[in-house]
Design goal:
single chain; 119 residues; 1 helix; 6 strands; PilZ domain-containing protein; PilZ_domain
């Protein structure tokens, strides 16, 4: 169940196209969320990314929280809201505008689109 925004007919409903990536990163958990060992960060991999959000996978079990910071060494930190969690995989929406995210990631993802309906 990787495509949380697909509807039952299989039609993609995401506003911005996502690109598959495999970037190391970590989530910093906010507002009292804790890992089982009382840490506040979760190491893992960014699996895909768009100008509006990302999919992040980890090997650690952690409690869901709405507010997180996605830390990607090649770009820096992104404030996010966790919109879904399926085991070790979470879907994130960036708090910053798509235009700001585009400026940050466009060199690493040349095919990334800021146009919500790319041709």
């Amino acid at each position: 169940m990787d495509h949380r925004e697909d509807d039952p007919s299989g039609i993609e409903k995401r506003r911005y196209k996502r690109k598959t990536v495999m970037w190391s990163g970590k989530l910093s958990l906010l507002w009292g969320a804790r890992l089982s060992n009382e840490e506040h960060t979760v190491a893992g991999v960014v699996r895909d990314m768009s100008v509006s959000g990302a999919k992040f996978q980890t090997k650690d079990v952690f409690s869901a929280t709405a507010g997180v910071v996605l830390e990607v060494p090649r770009f820096g930190n992104f404030n996010c809201k966790m919109i879904w969690q399926d085991g070790y995989v979470v879907g994130l929406n960036f708090d910053e505008s798509p235009e700001e995210i585009y400026k940050t990631i466009t060199e690493a993802l040349p095919g990334i689109a800021i146009d919500p309906n790319p041709i």
